[in-house]
Amino acid sequence: MSAANVVYAEGLTKKFDGLAAVAGIDFQVGRGECFGLLGPNGAGKTTTVRMAACFLPPDGGRLEVFGLPVEAHPRRIKARLGVCSQEDNLDPDLNVLQNLLVYSRYFDIDRRTARVRAEELLGFVGLAGRRASPVLQLSGGMKRRLVIARSLINRPELLILDEPTTGLDPQARHQVWDYILALKAGGTTSLLTTHYMEEAAALCDRIIIMDRGRIVIEGRPAELVRSVVGERVVEITGYDEAEERFLRERQLYFEKTARRLLVFSGRSEESFAEITGRFCRGGCTLRMANLEDVFLKLTGRELKE
Amino acid sequence: MSSGLGNISWRAVRVWQRNWTVYCATWLINFLAPILEPLLFLLAFGVGLGRLVPSVAYGGLEIPYRVFIMPGILAVSVMNYAFFETTYASFVRIYFQKTYDAILATPLLLEDVLAGEILWGATKSVLATAIMMVVVSCFGLLVYPAALWLIPAALLGGLAFASLGMIFTGLVGSIDQFNLPIFLLVTPMYLFGGVFFPLESLPDWAVNLAKLLPLTHLVIVMRQLALGRVDASLAGSLAALLVFGAACFVLALYLLRRRLIK
Q1: Residues in domain ABC transmembrane type-2 (chain B) (predicted)?
Q2: What's the domain range around B157?
């Protein structure tokens, strides 16, 4: 591996009861990068990041973090990691400040340094006024912010964020994004999983989309949108067969949902004018294509679980 | 990520410290039970049953029933504090609070966490023993300086029963299932471990059966130390506790790794 890679995975495999949750994936995360793992539920995202965090031993392939194999050096790797898990695992027996101070002891950070950092981090996530509150009294958004603060107590070189904004209201979500972007500006590498496409688009330099344990596609968010679905989408509400036939004849890529046709521009912008001119009686929306279109095109619209 | 005893490091102390921090926040409540417990037993067995059974034969002597029974009560507390800590309390920390999950994202390994929890369970036994010793000493029920050895004995017994509890935490599917080992193991030991009557008063087969229970050995050890009348059986009972505790510890580590690290 090259020294620039913070995470290096090659043929990485993990099986549960004989079923492959992660079925031989390759990816690298470079220093300073924000790398996103996307995919529907059960795609293997969480399993992948839990292996990188040394929670789960891989069953096959290679996985190195900071150039160290995860099986051989879990302590050395974890000392340099920050982990925000999907589930809230703050210590409910401790208050806000104690959560940070007790956590700092696991990293052997001396008391004085821990105090300074804890206050600094509470300021960073806007919880300085709540330092003595019991964790159980915090709102969902505050808990998430505290989890982020806690994951930074050891000044991690790599931050692993497993669905950092799931279940948060839009205000809290944007706040979490701001923290992640601020950390990125400071040079922290991050590896995050999400199934919010706008989150991946807002934060990630590079993403992979996973489905059923495999990588479907890899690239930069904007480039993926352009290459997979094109620049724009027309959504036609209340369509009939004539419209479908027309799209087939023109060989335009489109998707059918219960009430709408989504027509992707691909390379043929001129057909769009024709569509809007001829069909759109029931209502049409022209919009920019986004990562969600890429995601649904590649992983399908049916429910995964 | 090899498993087993080799994964235990001094970092286990960090988990112990976490539990100590939580304990200190509610120390008054934590102190109350071990203060009241011996008083209740003295009331029931000294004033109540003591009228019916004024004295028992122990080691060739007739001693008052309350003097006989108190070391057994201490041994039961050692068992209960350790066993309940690594069953109910640890279960809540693992499966409900996800405390281990958070700790495992730091340089600690699972074996550090388990060793720290078992050490903490034993610490609760030691703390309870120390508090109860102060209370019962006021009634002149302990013989010093021999009784000071109760503290290390409580640590040994605590480690053994904390390890035993951790085995069930690795096995049960839900927190209600702890009723089973309590009903089948803890309660029979409480009743037949020689706490309430001298083993010598039983037929041989019953004595041999009782000696299969770890609590019986802890009662033997703690009674000899509390009353300052040590004989050769002390070494055998200490060895039995040590072997039992070590076996439980290794098994608990194995079961929890199998369960938590898929």
Answers
A1: 29-259
A2: 34-47+64-260
